[in-house]
Specification:
Radius of gyration: 27 Å
Oligomer: single chain
Largest sheet: 9 strands, mixed
Shape: globular
Strand content: 5-15%
Structural class: alpha/beta
C-alpha cells in the first residue's frame, strides 16, 4: 500500500539509498579497539624505552637520507632551477645570487633529524604524559594498516589539530610502535624558541612561513622540498589540513596548499600512488581550554617562547583525563582520482615547469580535503562531558543534578543511534559517570545544593559590567569548545529541525539556506546539500522524531524533545549571525574596514548585553563566529570587499542583509515561542514584549 504511488516509491528509494550510504560509512560497524600505550610506560623503565633499538621499515626499503643530501637534491632539481632562472630574468639579478637566496631559504626551512634528540623527547614525553594523562589510547589495527601503507607507497599523515600537543604526540606514538618518524610542517613561530626550536627541527620539524604572499622563489623551494621527500619516500610527511589549531574544537575549513603539493607527483606520474591517512586526536580535557576562550574574545595569543614553556609547567599538577588517537584507513589518491581527473593532460608539458592546477584538479583536491576532514570527524572519540556540556549550554541558569543525569542518558542514546563514537565507561552507574566528568572539569562546572552550573572566575575586587561579561563569556566559550566536539554528529538533523520550526512550509529551501549560511562554521562538503538533507530526514525518522507521509515531514508526538534540543543546539549560531546582520544594518559606518569589523561587532553586542539586558548569547562575542558570519555574507553577496589604499573596506548591501536577518529572525521567534510556556490567556502583545526583551526588534513581529 505504501508503494502505491510514484512519489511514495521515490521517497522509499531515497530512504534506502541514504540508509545504504550511511551503513557504508557508519564507523560503528568498523571501528577498531584501543590499547593504552601508557600502561607499559607505567610498569617499565622510561630510560630503557628511550634507548631501545629503533629500526623502522621505510618505503620500499630505501636508505634514510642525510639532511645535506636532501638539500642538494632539492637545489639541483629541474623545477627549482627553472624558477631561479625565471626570477633572475624578472629581477635582473644573476642566477647565482638567486641560487644563494634559495639555499638560505632551504637552510632556514629544512629539518635535521637526529636520533639522539628523538630519544630525549621519548624520555621526556613519557614522564610528562604519565603525569598529565590517565590514558593515551591508540587503535593498534590502524597502526598495522599504517605500517603496511608506509612500505607500499608514499604516506601523508593528516591529524586533526586541537592542541600544541598534537605533533609531539604523533611522533611519540610512531616511535613507540617502531614506525618511521614523520617530517612535520611547523609554523615559523616555533623557530624563535631558544633551544626548543632547534630540538624540534632535530626531531623532524621543518619550518615554513604562515603566508608566502607572491614570493615565487620561496614557494618553489618549499614545494620542491616537500615533493622530493614524498617522491623518494624518505619519511612520511605530516601536516595539519586545517592549517592551524582549532580554538573552538570544531573542524576548520581545510587549507589546500600543502595537499595540492603532495598530490601533484601522482598527477604527473612521478609516483604510482599516495596514501592519505586521516588521524583523529580526541582530548578528554584540552590543555589550552581557557587560553582559547580568551583568544576568541580578543586577548592576544601569547608568543611561543622557551620561557613561556617553562612557566606552563604548572599544568603538570593538573589531570587532563584521556587521549584517544585513531589512525583511519589509508585513502588511496589513485582510487579517489579514478574517473575524476584526466592525468594525460600532464604529459603535454615538461614536468619541471610549474603550472596552475586545472579546474578539475582543484575541484578534486577540494573534495578530497573535505572527505579527509569528515573522516577525522567520524572517528573522533566523544566523552560523556561533551553531552553534558551540550545540555548545560542550553540551561545557562543551571540544572538540577538529577535532571542533568537523566538528560545525559537520553542524549547518550540519541548520539549512539546517530553512530557517534562515544567512550562511555562499561558497567559504571550513570551517576558515577556524571560525577567523575564533573570532577575532571571542575574548572568549568560545579555542583552546589544539588544544582549544576557553569563556573565563572571569581574577581579579586569590584568589577565593571564589561569585566563581568568577559568572565562569563570565558566560561561559556570554554564549555562550548566541548559541545562543539559533538556538533558533527547532530548538525544535519539539527538544521532540518530548525527548518521545520520555520514559519515557511518550504522545509528543504530553509534547510538549504542554513546549509549555505553555516558552511564556514561546519564541514559541509560542497555540492552535498541534497545528500545531507536526505541524511537528516533518515536520521530523524530512524529515531522516531519525524514521520514522512507522502512528501511531507511531520513531527511525531515523541519528537518534540529531540527537535527542541536540536533547535537549542544551533540557537547560538542563529543568534550570533543575526547580531552581525543587525550591526551591519544599524550601526556600521560607510567606511567600515575589515580590521575594524570584529572589535566593532564585539562592542555592539557588549552594549546590548550590558546596558540593555538583551541577548544573553555569549558566543556572539567569539571572533570565530564573527569571521564565519562575515564569510557567509560575502559568499551570499550581501557584503563586498573593496581595497582602498592599504585597507580593505566592507560595502554592505543593506537590503540583502536585512533579508537574511529577517529569515534568521523568524527562526528565533519560533525557537523562543517553543521554549516559552504560553497559556491561552497570554496575549500576543505579551509574546511580542517577551521577544523584544530577548533581543528581537518590533520590525520582526508581523
Amino acid at each position: 500500500r505504501e508503494l502505491s504511488s510514484e512519489s511514495n516509491i521515490h521517497i522509499y528509494c531515497l530512504n534506502i539509498l541514504v540508509f545504504v550510504t550511511l551503513q557504508q560509512r557508519d564507523p560503528m560497524l568498523k571501528r577498531d579497539g584501543f590499547e593504552d600505550i601508557l600502561e607499559e610506560r607505567r610498569n617499565s623503565s622510561d630510560l630503557k624505552y628511550a634507548l631501545r633499538c629503533y629500526a623502522p621499515v621505510l618505503y620500499k626499503g630505501v636508505t634514510p637520507c642525510k639532511a645535506n643530501m636532501l638539500k642538494n637534491i632539492v637545489l639541483q632539481s629541474d623545477q627549482l632551477r627553472y624558477v631561479i632562472n625565471q626570477v633572475s630574468q624578472e629581477s635582473g639579478e644573476a642566477p647565482d645570487i638567486i641560487q644563494e637566496e634559495a639555499s638560505v631559504i632551504l637552510e632556514e626551512m629544512a629539518h635535521r633529524l637526529q636520533i639522539s634528540t628523538v630519544r630525549f623527547f621519548a624520555f621526556a614525553l613519557s614522564k610528562a604524559f604519565k603525569t598529565l594523562f590517565q590514558h593515551v589510547c591508540v587503535n593498534e589495527e590502524g597502526i598495522q594498516r599504517l605500517q603496511q601503507a608506509i612500505q607500499e607507497h608514499p604516506v601523508v599523515l593528516l591529524p586533526s589539530h586541537r592542541s600544541y600537543m598534537d605533533f609531539l604526540l604523533m611522533s611519540y606514538i610512531l616511535y613507540t610502535y617502531d614506525l618511521a618518524l614523520p617530517v612535520i610542517a611547523a609554523g615559523m613561530d616555533f623557530m624563535g624558541m631558544k633551544f626548543v626550536g632547534e630540538m624540534l627541527r632535530m626531531s623532524g620539524a621543518f619550518f615554513i612561513r604562515r603566508s608566502f604572499g607572491g614570493d615565487k622563489l620561496y614557494w618553489a623551494v618549499f614545494s620542491e622540498y616537500v615533493k622530493t621527500m614524498l617522491r623518494n619516500g624518505f619519511a612520511p610527511i605530516e601536516f595539519f589540513l586545517e592549517g592551524t589549531r582549532s580554538r573552538t574544537c570544531k573542524s576548520l575549513t581545510p587549507k589546500l596548499g600543502l595537499l595540492n603539493i603532495v598530490i601533484e607527483p601522482f598527477f604527473k606520474g612521478e609516483v604510482f600512488d599516495v596514501n592519505l591517512v586521516p588521524i583523529s586526536i580526541s582530548y578528554e580535557r584540552i590543555l589550552e581550554e581557557s587560553l582559547y576562550a580568551r583568544e576568541l574574545l580578543g586577548v592576544p595569543k601569547p608568543k611561543e617562547s622557551t620561557s613561556g614553556l617553562l612557566k606552563a609547567r604548572r599544568i603538570l599538577s593538573e589531570d587532563y583525563g584521556s587521549i584517544h588517537v585513531y589512525f583511519g584507513q589509508p585513502v588511496s589518491v589513485r582510487s579517489l582520482a579514478q574517473g575524476k581527473v584526466n592525468r594525460s593532460t600532464y604529459n603535454l608539458f615538461p614536468r619541471h615547469i610549474p603550472r596552475k592546477p586545472m579546474e578539475e584538479t582543484q575541484s578534486f583536491v577540494n573534495d578530497t580535503a573535505y572527505r579527509i576532514v569528515r573522516l577525522q570527524e567520524d572517528n573522533m572519540v566523544l566523552k560523556p562531558w561533551v553531552l553534558m556540556a551540550s545540555l548545560l549550554l542550553q540551561n545557562l541558569e543551571g540544572m538540577e543534578l538529577s535532571v542533568l543525569t537523566e538528560q545525559t542518558v537520553w542524549l547518550r542514546g540519541l548520539a549512539l543511534s546517530y553512530a557517534a563514537f562515544l567512550d562511555w565507561p562499561d558497567h559504571a552507574p550513570t551517576a558515577k559517570v556524571v560525577s567523575s566528568s564533573l570532577a575532571l572539569h571542575r574548572g568549568l562546572a560545579c555542583v552546589s545544593g544539588g544544582r549544576v552550573s557553569l563556573v565563572v572566575g571569581e574577581p579579586l575586587g569590584p568589577v565593571t559590567p564589561e569585566e563581568a561579561l568577559f568572565n562569563r563569556a570565558v566560561s561559556v566559550l570554554s564549555c562550548a569548545s566541548y559541545r562543539n566536539q559533538v556538533l558533527h554528529v547532530f548538525l544535519r538533523p539539527a538544521m532540518l529541525a530548525v527548518a521545520m520550526l520555520h514559519l515557511s512550509d518550504e522545509v528543504y529551501n530553509c534547510f538549504s539556506f542554513l546549509w549555505d549560511m553555516f558552511s564556514n562554521d561546519f564541514i559541509l562538503c560542497p555540492g552535498d546539500t541534497v545528500q545531507d538533507f536526505e541524511e537528516a530526514c533518515y536520521l530523524l525518522v530512524k529515531t522516531g522524531a519525524v514521520q514522512m507521509p507522502q512528501q511531507d515531514i511531520v513531527m511525531t508526538d515523541i519528537g518534540q524533545p529531540t527537535l527542541s534540543f536540536f533547535n537549542g543546539l544551533l540557537e547560538p549560531f542563529l543568534q550570533g549571525y543575526q547580531v552581525v546582520c543587525r550591526y551591519l544594518c544599524e550601526e556600521a559606518s560607510e567606511g567600515l574596514t575589515e580590521k575594524q569589523y570584529i572589535p566593532a561587532v564585539r562592542s555592539f553586542h557588549s552594549v546590548l548585553c550590558v546596558f540593555t539586558g538583551n541577548l544573553r548569547c555569549y558566543e556572539v562575542l567569539s571572533s570565530d563566529m564573527q569571521k564565519n558570519a562575515l564569510a557567509a555574507l560575502l559568499r551570499m553577496d550581501a557584503v563586498r570587499k573593496v581595497k582602498v589604499a592599504d585597507q580593505v573596506t566592507l560595502i554592505v548591501n543593506k537590503m540583502a542583509v536585512n533579508s537574511i536577518d529577517d529569515i534568521l529572525g523568524k527562526n528565533r521567534m519560533i525557537s523562543h515561542i517553543n521554549q516559552t510556556q504560553i497559556s491561552p490567556s497570554l496575549s500576543l502583545v505579551a509574546v511580542a514584549e517577551d521577544l523584544c526583551r530577548d533581543g528581537l526588534t518590533p520590525s520582526y513581529i508581523r
